[in-house]
Design goal:
Helix content is 9%, strand content 36%. With 206 residues, the protein is mainly β. The strands form 2 sheets. Strands 3, 4, 5, 6, 9, 10 and 11 form a 7-stranded mixed β-sheet that branches. A 5-stranded antiparallel β-sheet has the order 2-1-7-8-12, with no helix packed on it. Strand 3 (37-42) and strand 4 form a beta hairpin. The chain is globular and about 45 Å long. It starts with a strand and ends in a 21-residue tail after the last strand.
């Protein structure tokens, strides 16, 4: 799954990489958790929405707490996501994301980031519920490098497939190549969602 991630690149960098004329201003974040306002790219614009998708048929928005992720294997058919999959896709920029691995009686966080230094673009969906806009991150089975930490990971869309994904074309919702990611052990300080600082990304001394 994907439960925390970071986005700290300058908005101008995001605009350039995604071919946008402008991007809403945002503060650097190093520990983004569900229910936070997050940046998404949809069509030719970027917007900020709440992480945790609330379907249009929901009776109240609290269901979004359970909808931070959508499984690639069922996203096209599951009632919570199928309409958004057909009509409301997005990309979610990220500098990296966190996953946890059981180690020594506790859950040890790891930070996964692009090996080439660019941004990730998670495959996502967005939805409108009354006046509230929300999103979810699509996940898939982990590649062989990621599998050392967790069994799932976000679907990372390659730059050549940005347009196809956003216009609703069918693209493979599979893990990116193992060579596209690097992984490092980081401090357990990231376990507290209220902690948000650049040093969360630093390698943890074992």
């Amino acid at each position: 799954m994907c439960g925390r991630y970071a986005l700290h690149s300058n908005p101008a960098v995001v605009a350039l990489l995604f071919g946008l004329s402008e991007v809403p201003d945002y503060a650097p974040r190093y520990n983004i958790a569900p229910s936070a306002q997050v940046l998404i790219v949809r069509g030719v614009e970027a917007a900020t929405v709440r992480w945790g998708l609330v379907p249009r048929w929901a009776k109240d928005p609290s269901i979004g707490v359970k909808m931070k992720n959508a499984r690639a294997e069922s996203v096209a058919e599951k009632p919570s996501f199928r309409e958004a999959y057909r009509k409301r896709r997005c990309l979610i920029p990220a500098n990296g994301f966190y996953e946890w691995k059981p180690e020594g009686g506790h859950k040890q966080p790891y930070y996964i980031y692009p090996s080439g230094g660019a941004l990730f673009a998670f495959a996502g969906l967005w939805e409108q519920w009354n006046d509230l806009q929300t999103c979810t991150v699509i996940t898939t089975e982990a590649n062989e490098k990621m599998a050392a930490v967790a069994d799932r990971m976000p679907v990372i869309v390659s730059p050549g497939e940005y347009s196809a994904w956003l216009r609703g074309d069918e693209i493979p919702l599979r893990a990116c190549p193992a060579s596209a990611i690097d992984i490092r052990r980081v401090s357990r300080a990231v376990n507290n969602a209220r902690t948000d600082a650049p040093d969360l990304l630093e390698p943890d001394a074992q």
